[in-house]
Amino acid sequence: MRILHLTDTHLYGDPDARHYDRIDTAAALRGLLARLEGLADIDVVVHTGDASEDGSDASYRLLHEILDPFAASLGAPLVVVMGNHDVSAVYGQSIVPGQRLAERQDRVVDLAGGGRVVVLDSSVPGAGYGHLEAEQLDWLREVLSRPAAEGTVLAIHHPPLVGATELLRGLDLDGLDELAAVLAGSDVRIVLAGHYHHEMHGAIGGIPVHVAPGITNVVDPLAPGAFEQSLALSGASVVELGEGAPRIITAVHPSAGDTLGDAEVPVYRFSPEQVAQIVAAAGR
Fold it and tell me: Left (φ > 0), alpha (ψ -120 to 50) or beta: where does 64 sit?
């Protein structure tokens, strides 16, 4: 199985809106896809959330206007996960056929080669951190009780890994032990996630986890001093599942949507006080 992993496009319904008053997110996505032209043998395109910044119907129509023909050109289905900036009910009303619940976009996408992608919606309305209800874990346990012929990919926005910075740790996923217990011994080959906006690897329940870099911007998890910052970059990963450990290839480029045009100048640079304010407003 060969997967194109995209994440964190943060699209707006308003074409004049700019992320942090700087990034044209639609242009960033289109520019990254232009760099990916010529990819071959992709079985599925997985977008792991924060598809929208404003949760508007127009932003989701724009997402599919851009990504549907791109995925079709690869001969691959498109799977979109909900993130903390998304509004699951809005997305589910008109975009996703056969969703399990309008309020939560949890579903199974069967692939032509015998594999499948299981989507978990970890979003919490009005919050930045991630959470899975007991009912979702019960549903996942039931799904995984029937293995797929070529294995399962679990796609979720909030990584089941401890964040690398104070801000990301304040907005990470609840209940890692409970999720690990469901995944242990299952046919899940890899967990794909976004949210952190930088590449990261780890494991949960003995299963590899890959976090792809963001498309709208890329976080610098090793920023100097006590500040947290993000740069005007766009990234994507190709994940190959075969014998042995997953093979992951990641590329990061200057953002095609950067109105300043200087990838060395941070998109944002938060002080510890600003981080504390964000976590107080959007964390637990």
Answer: alpha
